[in-house]
UniProtKB/TrEMBL annotation:
The enzyme's E.C. designation: 6.3.5.5
Residues at which L-glutamine binds: S46, G220, G222, L248, Q251, N289, G291, Y292
Protein species of origin: Terrilactibacillus tamarindi
Annotated PANTHER family: CARBAMOYL-PHOSPHATE SYNTHASE SMALL CHAIN (PTHR43418:SF7), MULTIFUNCTIONAL TRYPTOPHAN BIOSYNTHESIS PROTEIN-RELATED (PTHR43418)
Identification of the protein by name: Carbamoyl phosphate synthase small chain
Region (CPSase): 1-171
GO BP field: 'de novo' pyrimidine nucleobase biosynthetic process; 'de novo' UMP biosynthetic process; glutamine metabolic process; L-arginine biosynthetic process
Assembly and interaction partners: Composed of two chains; the small (or glutamine) chain promotes the hydrolysis of glutamine to ammonia, which is used by the large (or ammonia) chain to synthesize carbamoyl phosphate. Tetramer of heterodimers (alpha,beta)4.
Length: 364
């Protein structure tokens, strides 16, 4: 097996074995602690442009099958694993991890100490990195990485180009796709919603013209401040239709209400992040994938209240608007991968729609 290297901006070089392609790609190196779910992680558009380190030491043992994908293709810029299993064993498996990565020309590396790398990221924060073949001069790459600015317009690369519908007998929902995971659509379909999925660039007026009973703001990659038009769109929707924000959608709701977001040192990525629901006092295990968070102090001047908190670091995991039907969560109630403890939040949104209807609120 040929060797491959992972070069980091701080000058560290990990030498391992080639997995996937050897086509060098730069990315922000982040880690995910989930024990399963590598297919969902690789195809979650929120990871667009990132090099993902999986801390679970054996990856690929149940192979690859398209029904587990969270979008049509993988969006990561690289994968780092301790050991990849090349002979998958699962009745649904269509190909091996290595064959899958090669077919999308995604570079990956195995056989390195992922514990050491993860500790490094925890200490220094996420690092810019590049996976490439051994004939590349590492010191040149370190220079290149230090000059490289992380991309900012990821949403435009992963949002749907055109609107589409998924008809249902229930309430009419507009789902704004900032890089939506399929799981969100699945949960809406499961509840019988009549769904229109629209591109991230859709304006508030266009959304209201669809006469939605509610709007869901999806997850998506990158800095929430890099989509100012979407923040404006959410601001204009507030009070006119019930809103449910998920992950990037949560951050956009916060920004639209006047709060601030900031980049975290190394983010939350995994399938067992404990969260406390401050309204019920209940705890839940959640699936998470975010590198930004809402700044708690910035909430003072807004009409937002905190509904959920992360147990590990006390960061904000959920918000609700005090005057309008709008709430959001930083984690993933659609799971995929991860536990389904927070799945009832989709029911909560449905109830919010019904209550708003009952109250006979007239929207402009
Ligand atoms: N999964 C998401 O929607 C992530 C939101 C945002 N890109 C972040 O990293 O914080």
């Amino acid at each position: 097996m040929s060797k491959q290297q992972l070069i980091l901006e701080n000058g560290t070089v990990f030498v391992g074995e080639q997995l996937g392609s050897s086509n060098g790609m730069k990315g922000e190196v982040v880690f995910n602690t989930g024990m399963t779910g590598y297919q969902e992680i690789m195809t979650d558009p929120s990871y667009f442009g990132q090099i993902v380190v999986l801390t679970y030491p054996l990856i690929g043992n149940y192979g690859i099958n398209r029904s587990d994908f969270e979008s049509k293709a993988p969006f990561i810029s690289g994968l780092v694993v301790r050991e990849a299993q090349d002979v998958p064993s699962h009745w649904r498996s269509e190909q091996s991890l290595d064959a899958f990565l090669k077919s999308y020309d995604i570079p990956a590396i195995q056989g390195i100490d992922t514990r050491k790398l993860t500790k490094m990221i925890r200490e220094y924060g996420t690092l810019r990195g590049k996976i490439c073949s051994m004939d590349v001069d590492a010191s040149e790459v370190v220079k290149e990485l230090n000059k490289w600015e992380l991309p900012t317009h990821q949403v435009s690369q992963v949002t749907t180009k055109m609107s589409y519908t998924s008809p249902g007998q229930g309430r009419r929902i507009v789902l704004v796709d900032f890089g939506m995971k399929k799981g969100i659509l699945r949960e809406c379909v499961r509840r019988g919603f009549d769904i229109t999925v629209v591109p991230a660039t859709t304006g508030a007026e266009e959304i209201l013209n669809l006469q939605p009973d509610g709007v869901i703001l999806s997850n998506g990659p990158g800095d929430p401040k890099s989509v100012p038009d979407a923040i404006q769109m959410v601001r204009e929707l507030l009070g006119k239709t019930p809103i449910f924000g998920i992950c990037l959608g949560h951050q956009l709701l916060a920004l639209a209400c006047g709060a601030n977001t900031e980049k975290m040192r190394f983010g939350h990525r995994g399938s067992n992040h404990p969260v406390k629901d401050l309204e019920t006092g209940q705890f839940m295990l959640t699936s998470q994938n975010h590198g930004y968070t809402v700044d708690e102090k910035s909430l003072e001047l807004t009409q937002l209240s905190v509904t959920h908190l992360a147990i590990n670091d006390q960061t904000i995991e959920g918000l609700k608007h005090r005057d309008y039907p709008a709430f959001s969560v930083q984690f993933h109630p659609e799971a995929s991968p991860g536990p389904e403890d927070s799945n009832p939040l989709f029911d909560k949104f449905q109830q919010m729609i019904e209550q708003t209807k009952k109250a006979g609120v007239q929207f402009a």
